[in-house]
């Protein structure tokens, strides 16, 4: 019976159920593409179904890197213009390669934040059908949590889908809520950083229902000390 009680659902399944709920006003393919686009833009935390570990965009890029040529795009070296988009044939005809060229080194050790971000922004414009059959199962396996989808709906202004949330209404985020978040985070930040930023966000989301990630990022930038802005937990140096 609805609503579904699972905490994690594949994006493809979410899209199918959501499309049915709104009587096909938007197709499942359209919704799935939007959810994937949001993932590539770093706005929707995701994981593989059955795994508790969040998958990052760079993790998925490594999967794509196993097969550099796809029906709708090619991964090419940054210094490489890629194959010619136009090919002349002996009979005088011309064929045009309409695939998108996305610059990303073969060697992940050469990936910089700028290259990863640019590649992900390009992939945000790619539809699922543009991925090769060897990669498509991994793409379909991308899932997200109920809380992450609620946050997505809150940011975009979508009603919470009934298939997962029943009659729940999205929590309204207010200036008062943000002030309380600031006090809570400031108290934590007076000590040593013991977790990654994403883990503090997950804890804050439990403490403050309806917390948008953008609000958390805004308060984080204002409240935490400079040493907390480094990635990962702060580890004390060992005495020699």
- Biggest sheet architecture: 4 strands, antiparallel
- Structural category is alpha+beta
Strand fraction? 5-15%
Percent range for helical residues?
A: 40-55%
Element pattern in H and E: EHHEEHEEEEHHEHHHHH
* Poorly predicted ranges: 235-240
Number of helices: 10
Name the strands of the widest sheet in spatial order.
1-8-2-3
Got a strand count?
Answer: 8
Query: What radius of gyration results from the CA coordinates?
Result: 21 Å
N-C termini distance:
61 Å
General form: globular
Total individual domains: 2
Chain-averaged pLDDT: 85
Describe the model.
The protein has 240 residues and is of the alpha+beta class. It has two domains: 1-73 and 111-170, no CATH class; 175-229. It has helices at 11-21, 28-40, 57-64, 113-123, 136-140, 146-156, 162-165, 175-189, 197-207, 213-223, and strands spanning 8-10, 46-48, 54-55, 73-76, 86-88, 94-96, 100-103, 142-145. Strands 1-8-2-3 form a four-stranded antiparallel sheet. Helix 1 crosses helix 2 and helix 8 (175-189) packs across helix 10.
């Amino acid at each position: 019976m609805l609503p579904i009680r699972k905490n994690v659902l594949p994006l493809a399944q979410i899209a199918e159920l959501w499309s049915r709920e709104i009587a096909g006003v938007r197709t499942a393919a359209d919704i799935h593409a939007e959810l994937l686009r949001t993932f590539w833009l770093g706005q929707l935390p995701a994981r593989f179904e059955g795994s508790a570990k969040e998958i990052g965009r760079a993790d998925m890029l490594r999967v794509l890197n196993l097969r550099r040529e796809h029906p709708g795009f090619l991964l090419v070296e940054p210094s490489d213009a890629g194959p010619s988009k136009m090919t002349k044939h002996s009979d005088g005809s011309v064929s045009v390669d309409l695939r998108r060229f996305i610059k990303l080194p073969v060697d992940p050790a050469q990936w910089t934040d700028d290259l990863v971000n640019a590649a992900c922004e390009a992939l945000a414009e790619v539809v699922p059908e543009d991925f090769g059959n060897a990669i498509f199962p991994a793409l379909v396996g991308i899932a997200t949590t109920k809380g992450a989808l609620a946050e997505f709906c809150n940011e975009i202004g979508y009603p919470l889908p009934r298939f997962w949330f029943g009659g729940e209404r999205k929590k309204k985020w207010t200036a008062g809520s943000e002030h309380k978040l600031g006090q809570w985070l400031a108290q934590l930040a007076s000590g040593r950083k013991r977790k990654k930023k994403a883990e503090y966000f997950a804890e804050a989301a439990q403490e403050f229902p309806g917390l948008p990630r953008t609000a958390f990022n805004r308060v984080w930038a204002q409240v935490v000390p400079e040493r907390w802005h480094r990635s990962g937990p702060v580890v004390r140096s060992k005495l020699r």
